[in-house]
Automatic annotation (TrEMBL):
Enzyme Commission number(s) from the entry: 1.1.1.25
Organism encoding this protein: Neolewinella marina
InterPro entries to which the protein is assigned, alphabetical: Aminoacid_DH-like_N_sf, NAD(P)-bd_dom_sf, Shikimate_DH-bd_N, Shikimate_DH_fam
GO cellular component: cytosol
An example molecular function term from Gene Ontology annotations: NADP binding
High-level lineage: Bacteria, Pseudomonadati, Bacteroidota, Saprospiria, Saprospirales
Keyword Nucleotide-binding tagged: no
UniProt keyword list: Amino-acid biosynthesis, Aromatic amino acid biosynthesis, Oxidoreductase
Listed name of the protein: Shikimate dehydrogenase
The UniProt record lists the keyword Oxidoreductase: yes
UniProt record, GO biological process: aromatic amino acid family biosynthetic process; chorismate biosynthetic process; shikimate metabolic process
Amino acid sequence: MPTFGLLGYPLSHSFSRGYFTAKFADLGLSDTHRYLNFEIPTLEDFQKILDEYPDLRGLNVTIPHKQGVVALLDAIDPAAERIGAVNTILIEDGKTRGFNTDYLGFRDDLLAQLRSQQRFTNLRGQSALILGSGGAALAVREALLDLSVKPVTVSRSARAGQLSYADLDRDTLTTHRLIVNTTPLGMYPQVETAPEIPYELLTPAHFCYDLIYNPAETRFMRLARGAGAGAANGMGMLHSQAEAAWNIWTAE
């Protein structure tokens, strides 16, 4: 039976299994296809999964394995190699090839959200803060560069080319009006957590995009909206990247 799955840890928040199970039903494939969760805290068991499931055709990859899995694959798509992270794996003739569909999913949904909320009629030349520095942040950075937006990464400690959360003062928030949360802060079940940014400095000129989709409104989004800023969650991005993954797995 053709098998697909999700690789990550933890997976209690997972969207993918339900999404693809429903997709199989819609396509009349429920009796012939399956989607499994592979909840592994480290990648030591990656090869074991491949060996134990010879019918495995494709994997989605989520936190915390998007970067670490790159070195374990037989080949990498050029875009994923440029980003340095993989969220989709194609398994064909015993070989693994990594792709990054987060990039397309974020780019397309960000533009759709900005249009629907009538924010940033022209992104070109804008500056953005990316909260977090993991695999998803790398995809977001690539998408923003593609949109001619200047991205600046914010992490817990400052380093060359990055800011720390302590660096986020009024001047920084004034010149960086697009803020993207790529950290897991606020994800179910830790719903009362949020990135430590000065929300009181946000204005209606800001837009805050959270890659988290569960809960539908994170504390990050709620605090941003409370200051008058626009906000969106990552559900649209998730749908877009999932469809891109399916197209990769089923391409002739």
